[in-house]
Design goal:
Order of helices and strands: HEEEEEEEEHHHEEEEEEEEEEEEEE
Distance between the termini: 62 Å
Helix content: 10-25%
Radius of gyration: 41 Å
Number of domains: 3
Largest sheet: 16 strands, mixed
Strand content: over 45%
CATH class of the largest domain: Mainly Beta
Number of helices: 4
Number of strands: 22
CATH architecture of the largest domain: Beta Barrel
Structural class: alpha+beta
CATH superfamily of the largest domain: Efflux pump adaptor protein, beta barrel domain
């Protein structure tokens, strides 16, 4: 009995000691969070649309005359032109040869005839002062001179038809194959050229955006195969009419493509910049929480998560401008805020 009494006393003492141990306070638990020091930046409000980028200048050249086919050499490579080669305005790409046709034009005799008439006119002007010729002789010579110049000009035009020249700076995008020296008939396709250093795209814009979209607004152009390259564009034209079927209106975007990274026919995304703010506080949209009509975020102050009610301005796809409620260098909680309560103790992770 004595042994049992001692055991009961020892158990009671042990329980009393346990009850006197300090209990952990839930408010002392530190929630791990990640923070970002707020810095000012720029943000744009964007209206998104898509479309197909096309070359500003695009032409398919056909043969105006028949002749023997000869593909000219590219002076940059010393080899015949090929697909993808760049050409300059006025550069000869293809020649068609026809000796009989060239002989019939008789370009040399027309040049000589023009020289003879010009000399004759010069002599007659000298003789006119001495009465050696009449005004009628001078007028007849002028008519012959004009006709001779037209004949030479037409001859040069006809000879130029035997050459396929680039009408603008561009790139060869199509080049049908012909065996060198084979006769090509008139009207056959010769070469396709595009200048896509400058491009355009036609877009359909939602009716609800009409009050925001204006001519000359900047446009950011991206393409999924070029995720790290953003090209610059501008709204050049806008239709005032709304489609009854799609409830959209049409617009035209001009695109600068100086490095030729964007290719004709590519499907691209166009973000129209309708508003922009510089040197403002910007935070990720996903950290913003709401309670009824109030937006708030958490910041860290002296190891504690403190709520800040905020007002937002311009928003883009990922970020929002904060007009009121935050200041530069505030420590904004960007991860771990989901389970926080006001004045929770936090541990900032690095």
């Amino acid at each position: 009995m004595k042994y049992k009494s001692l055991l009961v006393v020892a158990l009671a003492v042990s329980l009393a000691a346990c009850s006197n141990q300090p209990q952990s306070n839930p408010s002392d638990i530190e929630t791990p969070v990640y923070v970002r020091e707020i810095q000012k930046g720029s943000i744009s409000r964007l209206i998104n649309t898509t479309g197909t980028a096309l070359a500003t200048y695009n032409v398919e050249l056909n043969s105006e005359m028949s002749g023997l086919y000869k593909l000219a050499n590219n002076p940059r490579t010393g080899k015949p032109f090929k697909l993808g080669d760049a050409v300059k305005k006025g550069q000869v790409i293809i020649r068609l040869e026809d000796k009989a046709y060239e002989n019939n034009i008789a370009i040399d005799s027309k040049k000589l005839n023009l020289e003879i008439i010009e000399q004759e006119q010069s002599k007659q002007k000298s003789l006119l002062e001495m009465g050696g010729v009449t005004e009628l002789d001078i007028r007849n010579t002028e008519v012959r001179l004009i006709n001779s110049r037209h004949d030479l000009e037409n001859a040069n035009i006809n000879l130029e038809k035997m050459e396929i020249k680039a009408p603008f700076d561009g790139v060869i995008v199509s080049l049908p194959h012909y065996t060198p020296g084979v006769r090509v008939d008139q009207g056959k396709p010769m070469v396709g050229l595009m200048d896509y250093a400058h491009m355009f795209m036609e877009v359909n814009l939602a009716e609800s955006t009409m009050e925001y979209i204006q001519q000359n607004q900047p446009v950011l152009i991206t393409q999924y195969t070029l995720p790290n390259d953003t090209l610059k564009g501008v709204i050049s034209e806008l239709s005032p009419a709304i489609s009854n079927e799609t409830r959209t209106f049409r617009g035209k975007v001009l695109i600068d493509n100086p490095d030729l990274k964007l290719r004709p026919g590519m499907f691209v995304k166009a973000d129209v910049v309708v508003d922009r703010a510089e040197s403002v506080i910007i935070i990720p949209k996903n950290v913003i929480q709401s309670n009824r009509n109030t937006k708030f975020v958490y910041v860290v102050e002296r190891g504690t998560a403190v709520t800040r009610n905020i007002k937002t301005g311009i928003e883009d796809e990922d970020n929002a401008q904060v007009i009121e409620g935050l200041a530069e260098n505030d420590n904004l909680i960007i991860r771990g805020f989901e389970t926080l309560r006001p004045n929770s103790r936090v541990k900032v992770m690095k």
